[in-house]
Specification:
The complex is a heterodimer of chains A (114) and B (114).
Chain A (H helix, E strand, L loop, with lengths): L3 E4 L2 E4 L5 E7 L5 E7 L6 E8 L2 E4 L7 E6 L2 E6 L8 E10 L4 E5 L3 E5 L1
Parallel strand pairs in A: 2-11
Antiparallel strand pairs in A: 1-3, 3-8, 4-5, 4-9, 5-6, 7-8, 9-10, 9-11
Chain B lengths: L3 E4 L2 E5 L4 E7 L6 E7 L5 E7 L5 E4 L2 E6 L4 E6 L8 E8 L8 E3 L3 E6 L1
Parallel strand pairs in B: 2-11
Antiparallel strand pairs in B: 1-3, 3-8, 4-5, 4-9, 6-7, 7-8, 9-10, 9-11
């Protein structure tokens, strides 16, 4: 059963604190993503990782950094969190077959920055 | 500027009724279009993908169409069930690989009442 997991599922932090969001996948997918979802907006891409230590900025990377030391794990780090980073964060991984391309999404992490 | 527009924003139907969700986009190129279902507090689950001009797909009570000339897609849900209550998200991919980007709509919130 293909699965993307995220930890924690809920997190409350104070402004200025550091935040670590973890994502794992058991499908050996090369490419992984971090998105955020805000009310009334579509998901926005923060970072994409094409493999271990091969990361690229997405559309809204400011205020975030990522780490990918193992293919199955992809972390999102907020150094000194800000209130406008309150959001739901989704991790995804993708598979590319001969005739298909699909992203699999985790359940999300709801982050509140006070 | 939003490149994927979904309508209506929200919709309430009675169990057993049919409904139609709309997606208009301006993404170019438009390699494929996928419809996702997002239950409250959960991740995105793929319902169907459309790739070719005038594609039509069917997945149980869900069916979808794509008109690439008009850059328009519809998702039909037949004989709705209470479990169909969710947000339905239209996503357009500009490539069929991880080198491309996914463009997300903000979603249509469907509520099915008894």
């Amino acid at each position: 059963d293909m699965k993307v997991t995220q930890m924690p599922r809920y997190l409350i932090k104070r402004m200025g604190e550091n935040v670590l969001l973890e994502c794992g996948q058991d499908m050996s997918h090369e490419t992984m993503y971090w998105y955020r979802q805000d009310p009334g907006l579509g998901l926005q891409l923060i970072y994409i990782s094409y493999d271990v230590d091969s990361n690229s900025e997405g559309d809204i990377p400011k205020g975030y950094r990522v780490s990918r030391k193992k293919r199955e794990h992809f972390s999102l780090i907020l150094d000194s969190a800000k209130t406008n980073q309150t959001s739901v964060y989704f991790c995804a991984s993708s598979f590319e077959g001969l005739s298909s391309y699909e992203q699999y999404f985790g359940p999300g992490t709801r982050l509140t920055v006070l | 500027k939003t490149q994927v527009e979904q309508s209506p924003q929200s919709l309430v139907v009675r169990q057993g009724e049919n409904c139609v969700l709309q997606c208009n986009y301006s993404v170019t190129p438009d390699n494929h279009l996928r419809w996702f279902k997002q239950d409250t507090g959960k991740g995105l689950v793929s319902l169907t993908v459309l790739v070719h001009e005038n594609d039509k797909t069917s997945n149980g009570r869900y069916s979808a169409t794509l008109d690439k000339d008009a850059k328009h897609s519809t998702l039909h849900i037949t004989a709705t069930l209470l479990d169909d209550t969710a947000t339905y998200i239209c996503v357009v991919g500009d490539r069929g690989s991880a080198l491309g980007r996914l463009h997300f709509g903000a979603g249509t919130q469907l509520i099915v009442i008894p």
